[in-house]
Specification:
- This protein is about 15% helix and about 40% strand.
- With about 190 residues, it is an alpha+beta fold.
- Strands 1, 2, 3, 4, 5, 6, 7, 8, 9, 10 and 11 form an eleven-stranded antiparallel beta sheet that branches.
- Strand 5 and strand 6 form a beta hairpin.
- It is globular.
């Protein structure tokens, strides 16, 4: 299984690299996201919210808090819960990876953390897809059919989750035209 995954990753990287004669969709997406660094936004659930889900009824905020050449960290706060950070990484082959860093109030890693996936191609400047990876399956096998995606344009940033073997869809939409005050740093940040 690991040899197959290595082969698929190598094939993905080879395909992505051959497509990079001009700036790729992933590179354009990355650069657009970096322009939001230091800014915070409020969001609303636009699909899949329901009473008791832990999100509905809470203030939802995101802040593009840390931007380097290869890693962008976006804390996603749900009310007073500062446990979540979306970590996007630019892989050497030109594709992007999304991981979910979950922390406990004392800053230690939650038992379920760093799950997510890597895009299978360079995507577009407005949409990046992240199907669940092997690390996610090994950590939480019920998430094997998860696909996350982020959309980004001049007006909105959306975070989306679809569980392919169900009708489950969850979307939070952030209005980029209305920045808010910086938010508290997530648990575990200094």
């Amino acid at each position: 299984m690991k040899k197959l995954l290595f082969f698929l990753c190598a094939l993905c990287c080879a395909t992505a690299l051959s497509a990079q004669t001009e700036q790729s969709g992933a590179e354009k997406f990355w650069n657009n996201l970096k322009t939001l660094c230091g800014k915070a936004y409020e969001g609303t659930i636009t699909a899949g919210g329901r009473e008791g889900d832990g999100f509905t009824g809470n203030r939802l905020t995101m802040q593009v808090l840390s931007c380097t050449d290869n890693v962008i960290k976006v804390p996603f706060n749900v009310g007073e819960n500062y446990s979540r950070t979306w970590v996007l990484t630019k892989e050497s082959c030109g594709v992007l990876k999304l991981k979910h860093d979950h922390r406990n109030p004392d800053g230690s890693h939650d038992k379920v953390t760093m799950y997510g996936g890597t895009s299978t191609n360079t995507g577009s400047e407005t949409v990046q897809f992240f199907p669940a990876d092997q690390e996610t399956y090994d950590l939480i096998s019920y998430a094997a059919t998860n696909v996350w995606w982020i959309t980004l344009d001049e007006n909105h940033f959306t975070y989306n989750l679809r569980k392919l073997d169900t009708d489950r869809l969850f979307t939070v939409t952030f209005d980029l035209k209305k920045p808010i005050e910086p938010q508290p740093k997530p648990w575990g940040w200094k």
